[in-house]
Amino acid sequence: MLKTENSASKVAEFLLKIKAIKLQPENPFQWASGWNSPIYCDNRKTLSYPEIRNYIRDCFSKEINENYSKPDIIAGVATGGIALGALVAQELELPFCYVRAQAKSHGLNNSIEGTVEAGQNVVVIEDLISSGKSSLNAVADLREAGLNVVGMGAIFSYGFSIAEDNFENANCELFTLTNYSTLLERALESNYISTDAIESLEEWRSSPSTWKK
């Protein structure tokens, strides 16, 4: 599920403007997985720009109010969703917690930081969805603690089919403020990329593991 067309385009424009997302089909990046990628995404950069982080906070807050009533708590996924989730929780006047990538190996061995109670309805905030695996690990930890995950929101998704399958299999509703298709449209409109680059960029999303191998 994607936000309204106008807000999705504006978020995409912001991400390109501050270089939170870079597109380099002719000079690809390499991910830790070994995949070649024409796109680099670091949405944590949005936190450095008050206008942009406030707009993103407001988009999340509006979506949550309109589609999830009022949850009991907001959860952020470490690390990219922590600051953003706290901003959303503050705007909605709700408690906040965050989920570690893995449980602490000392002390109380917490995987969830903050005060949570079984039965609470929670909306999870993430910055980026690729395969969805790490994000859904956080969902699993929250469910194991007895919370009811009513949905997850992210700033951006690459739109991989594997992510759609993973979220469907986990029975977790996902909404994003913008996505890869909208980003390419905005990048083309603003002359950030040429029409010649579009084919290569679309090919990557169709088969990211084999692109330019």
Description:
There is one protein chain. By secondary structure, the chain is α/β, with parallel strands linked by helices. The protein has a single domain (5-206), classed as Rossmann fold (3-Layer(aba) Sandwich). It has seven helices and ten strands. The strands form three sheets. Strands 7-6-5-8-9-10 form a six-stranded mixed beta sheet, sandwiched between helices. A two-stranded antiparallel sheet has the order 1-4. Strands 2-3 form a two-stranded antiparallel ribbon. Helix 1 (5-17) crosses helix 6 (180-189) and helix 2 crosses helix 3. It is globular and about 50 Å long. The mean pLDDT is 93.
Fold-level CATH name: Rossmann fold
Q: What order do the helices and strands follow?
A: HEEEEHEHEEEHEHEHH
Radius of gyration: 17 Å
Which shape, going by the Cα principal axes? globular
Give the CA-CA distance, first to last residue.
32 Å
Query: What structural class is derived from the secondary structure elements?
Result: alpha/beta
CATH-level-2 architecture: 3-Layer(aba) Sandwich
- Average pLDDT score: 93
The low-pLDDT segments are none
Strands of the widest sheet, in order across it, are 7-6-5-8-9-10
Number of helices: 7
> What is the helix content?
25-40%
Largest sheet: 6 strands, mixed
Tally of strands: 10
Share in β-strands: 15-25%
How many domains? The number is 1
Can you identify the CATH class? Alpha Beta
